[in-house]
Task: structure prediction
Amino acid sequence: MALIVQKFGGTSVGTVERIEQVAEKVKKFREGGDDIVVVVSAMSGETNRLIDLAKQISDTPVPRELDVMVSTGEQVTIALLAMALIKRGVPAVSYTGNQVRILTDSSHNKARILQIDDQKIRTDLKAGRVVVVAGFQGVDEHGNITTLGRGGSDTTGVALAAALKADECQIYTDVDGVYTTDPRVVPQAQRLDKITFEEMLEMASLGSKVLQIRSVEFAGKYNVPLRVLHSFQEGPGTLITLDEEESMEQPIISGIAFNRDEAKLTIRGVPDIPGVAFKILGPISAANIEVDMIVQNVAHDNTTDFTFTVHRNDYQAAQRVLEQTASELGAREVIGDTKIAKVSIVGVGMRSHAGVASRMFEALAKETINIQMISTSEIKVSVVIEEKYLELAVRALHTAFELDAPNHQGE
Ligand code: ADP
Ligand code: ASP
Ligand code: MG
Result:
């Protein structure tokens, strides 16, 4: 008998009918003899609705209170699913994060799970109950409700699977697996049978929202067998695996990720002397703003230009800080651009193949897409381009790296 953690995302529990369907599915698994812990998200749109409510009170809602509120979305779905199971004769019980005691740190709105008390869940499973746990939420050591960041129910699922040493963590969603790129943008995208943790981690951190990045980190760290599947269609889904060997025969590039959430800032004409990068980025990090890509140009006339990207939500704050730095350093000007996008190609195959980046640049050149910034690591190449070319770029790269599904080719 196996112990399975199943997580159902927002669209999969988006209506009462869907919750009933999920209950049917869980019931079937249960009849197969497995122990089941189910993690659910809020009904789709609910978390956004709650955040909008808070924003009607304040543009910057108090993080603690925001967590008290947004955590209610999941509290509704756990109760509805438990009711739907009980109605079908399946013994079930629901718990909030606090009730389980999913202990987190105190960083409201982006808390990290520290520890999970598995006692209650184990007792319920022994007694034959399906345990339904609220995703996305926990409690800190002072008893404050916390949430884990958008998409955080994935992380609840994986963390529970790790704590319970489950045989598998199944992430049920509205696509039948992890694709070569977002199938909503590229209809020719193909489902991957397998992807390594390392690649999935890059894909998630570079913008593929099919799994929250922390859930992949957790799964890698605790070696949790993780699978992404469609909630209501049969199929093998995608296995996230440690095993790199088996993916060696796959193409050089496993996937293409993209992200419209960044903005670019440039400070021009700063003195080219030691310590300048620190003088520019020190105050940015002191303002709690995370920097992603950084480029410093070659100096001429003893001055240089320095460009970096931040999350779009942090753009205005970063601009204010940079203006201040610019006047202190006697820089020429600060310019910025919010209409950018980052496109990345990801694949462990890059380690053993040369010329991957130039192939990427060639494909973009053919579409006359200008590259504004470039950054590389062992298994990825990212470029920043003008946002309006994002979809064109992703499609061109998908074709250039031969990722298009055969039956779609030539369309
Ligand atoms: P859930 O509500 O179930 O958590 P999400 O909306 O968070 O679902 O994630 C699923 C969505 O992720 C898909 O509908 C798809 O548009 C998007 N997505 C982005 N990149 C990928 C990818 N590489 N493979 C599959 N889906 C992707
Ligand atoms: N309901 C939360 C969100 O919308 C968590 C999740 O769905 O994973 O971000
Ligand atoms: Mg999600």
In short: The chain is about 35% helix and 25% strand.
